[in-house]
Backbone:
């Protein structure tokens, strides 16, 4: 697989990575099977999808434990990305950016992942009670201690820090400017897909101008852009999409023209090409500093996603995809 560099440190990973969260958290619990997920991670590494993206909050903790089962055997084959800064309670999630907590959380992640170094350590969310510079400074100390190779920042959510009339990523850009004064940012993780293009406006150009990689989260729109979801079929109660405005039966039906457009482009490239591969190829076409990180928990989907970098979209393909209708329904 094509490899792309992440940040000024020139860390390299496959152009398509593997989002590991669905294996342990936020998606249908009845379909989460540890052994099947372990096979999917091995398959990803075999195909060159070397970036494994996890977080201590996924599970919580169980996702890192699962990835650690693979890393124990294949650490040299993987680019390990995990996150810190969020704590999961019974019915809530809170931020914790205190330096002491960051240091303890890193050591705990290293133990669960069964490795002595994390390639990319990302701040999941800034703690509103702690200056982000303090949190980032503690993370920088982990780099100097040899426990972490590079630092990344996850984009603030659609609601977080949003001002009236502001762009979606204005709060993230403010954070980036602040932490960049403390220690270099190697990567920013933010949603980017054909039905969620806001990162193109200001965040992606900022990353390009500063030599920062962009990890495109949810490049398949939580599975919608794969064309495999049926409107009205419903989701299990523990699945985040069961409470998501864009995944009501009405909104899924209204957004089918987006999937139809992906299918039209796919057919131009052969019967075996899928809408998901077109969606991922579009993400990769947005810049050489972009790595797509689709979530998956089965070998079948990992294999399909890993073939996307070999799909060369034409100028007409990109024009047609640019003209797809905007998504209907709130993303909040």
Residues:
């Amino acid at each position: 697989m094509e490899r792309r560099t992440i940040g000024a440190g020139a860390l390299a990973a496959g152009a398509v990575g593997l989002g590991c969260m669905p294996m342990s958290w936020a998606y249908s619990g009845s379909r989460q099977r540890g052994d099947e997920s372990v096979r999917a991670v091995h398959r990803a590494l075999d195909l060159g999808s070397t970036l494994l993206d996890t977080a201590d909050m996924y599970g919580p903790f169980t996702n890192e434990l699962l990835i650690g089962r693979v890393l124990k055997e294949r650490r040299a084959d993987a680019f390990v990305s995990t996150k810190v800064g969020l704590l999961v309670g019974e019915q809530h999630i809170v931020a914790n950016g205190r330096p002491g907590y960051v240091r303890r959380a890193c050591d705990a992640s290293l133990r669960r992942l069964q490795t002595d170094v994390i390639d990319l350590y990302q701040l999941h969310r800034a703690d509103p009670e702690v200056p982000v510079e303090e949190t980032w400074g503690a993370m920088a100390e982990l780099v100097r201690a040899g426990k972490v190779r590079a630092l990344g920042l996850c984009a603030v959510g659609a609601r977080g820090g949003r001002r009236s009339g502001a762009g979606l990523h204005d709060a993230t850009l403010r954070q980036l400017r602040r932490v960049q004064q403390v220690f270099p940012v190697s990567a920013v993780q933010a949603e980017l897909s054909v039905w969620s293009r806001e990162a193109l406006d200001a965040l992606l150009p900022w990353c390009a101008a500063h030599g920062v990689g962009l990890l495109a989260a949810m490049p398949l729109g939580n599975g919608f852009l794969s064309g495999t979801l049926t409107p009205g079929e419903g989701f299990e109660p523990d699945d985040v999409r069961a409470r998501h405005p864009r995944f009501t039966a009405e909104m899924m039906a209204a957004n089918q023209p987006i999937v139809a457009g992906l299918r039209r482009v796919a057919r131009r490239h052969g019967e075996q090409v899928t809408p998901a591969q077109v969606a991922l190829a579009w993400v990769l076409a947005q810049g050489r500093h972009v790595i797509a990180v689709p979530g998956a928990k089965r070998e079948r989907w990992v294999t399909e996603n890993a073939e996307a970098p070999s799909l060369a979209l034409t100028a007409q393909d990109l024009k047609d995809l640019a003209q797809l209708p905007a998504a209907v329904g709130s993303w909040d």
